[in-house]
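Wed. Picked up where I left off yesterday with DUF547 domain-containing protein. The coffee machine is broken again, so keeping this brief.
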Amino acid sequence: MTDVAAWDGLLRRHVDDRGRVDYATWQRQGAAELEDWLAAQRPFDPEPGSRAEAMALWINLYNALVIRQVLARFPLASIRPTIAGVPNWPAFLVFFSRPVISLQGQPLSLNRIEHEILRPRFGDPRLHFALVCAAVGCPLLRPEAYRAERLEAQLEEDALRFLQHPHKLRFDPASGRLSVSRIFQWYRRDFLAVAPSIPAYVGCYRPELAMPAGARLSYLPYDWALNG
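Structure written out below (tokens, as returned):
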């Protein structure tokens, strides 16, 4: 089992209960510790003893690599930089597509970890409430590491916290309109693999909304500001 004590300690010191990251302090006082923890993941065991261990390992690794990417660039206002107010898409794409770690001789980018390992291997849409891309619009970063023995409870808490956030989900009973994060648009297929519709998926966590089966769906603006 991977030792996550150091990663857990860093999260507890530098992330508050609202998912905001104190990057300035982390850069001054915890960047080397993060590098040490990432280095300790080599040699890397991609097949730990259980599904929960593997899933927790990859989520922790993804989130730690995102933090490392931000610390290397900090200070910055957003992982989606702009030039004269226009998004600098090449720089933005590099953040996710450039290799950020090599494990067992394989260079891995954030995109490879998410789209070629986590999503196809585990098929759990709750991943999208746990993987944090360092933007306000993404899920809140937990101030603790994911652990196999608590993973199910942690993912359920993440899903409920995301779906209770007014900037991630709103329902207007008068119009029957459900407005959700663009995460549901980008990863629609993942959610529809476990539910007949996006409103049906949301309803599993927010039954008090009493949404009609034909609730109209729209997508909220995504906030790319840094989650600091």
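Quick read: Residues 124 and 190 are 7 Å apart (CA to CA).
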